[in-house]
Description:
The complex is a heterodimer of chains A (87) and B (204).
Chain A: E1 46-49, E2 54-56, H1 57-65, E3 82-85
Antiparallel strand pairs in A: 1-2, 1-3
Chain B: H1 2-23, H2 50-65, E1 78-80, E2 89-95, E3 106-112, E4 123-127, H3 157-169, H4 180-186
Antiparallel strand pairs in B: 1-2, 2-3, 3-4
Amino acid sequence: MRCEILGARLVAAWTWNASDDTCGICRLPFDATCTDCKLPGDGCPLAIGQCTHPFHLHCILKWLASANSRGQCPLCRQEWQFQQQAE
Amino acid sequence: MESQRGAAAGAALPSSRAQGSTSGDGGGGGGGGGGRAEVPRPATAKSMTPVALRRLQKEFSEWHMSSRTSDTQPLPPIYLETPVQRLDEWYIGLRGADSTLYAGEAFRLRFRFPTDYPIESPEVVFVGTTPLHEHVYSNGHLCLSILYDSWSPALTVNSVALSIQSMLSSATEKRRPPDNDAYVRNCRGRSPKQTRWLFHDDGV
Lengths: 87, 204
């Protein structure tokens, strides 16, 4: 028997690998964007600290840029060090 | 920088109050947040950053979804007073927890949100009757580190209100801070965020 595939419709889904669903700073889902961005995905990535806490990269940068932060993670107050960008 | 921030906050409040009461101004950017349709959306303060707006709208709808508002009967121990007239100024009702020194007492907290909330902490004070507590001044100011130096954007109105309630609950005696009179005389009308606080009691 032989069959011929005339067409196919492919659907893909993606999600960030993070220990949490929402950003603790803006309270929006990681799979959406931070409040400044329009398109989710690589344009609005996650940042994970060595303490393992994830945030939107743009949100944590905003926090770290403020004098209030004293360079600390908003969730555990350890000194913030970037672990790596989420993949 | 200090004085700039102070001036901005001082200037924004009276004028935006006036605008808010005449027209209800914005509606602008009122889209996000979800929640139920019957919840009246407070007027948006013009100067809020998008981050502040969306965060507050999110928190606002979470209070409604959990029915912790003054629409609910019986009143929850901590509730949002509704209707909220302005998105940048909320009143939270707080009742003293049972079997604590403040059982049966009721208080009101006023939250004022800066334009870059939650990067910047809200200004939180007691209004009306202030609880007699070692960390609460008679003008309503609170000596609580998370409101100032130890603020974190991961804190919310709800978690701050809970911390304040637990601060009250753990009191073992009712008394004013030792420097109450001098402090209150000194800071006439100023925001507690302009005070340089010394936190010496980590136990409460």
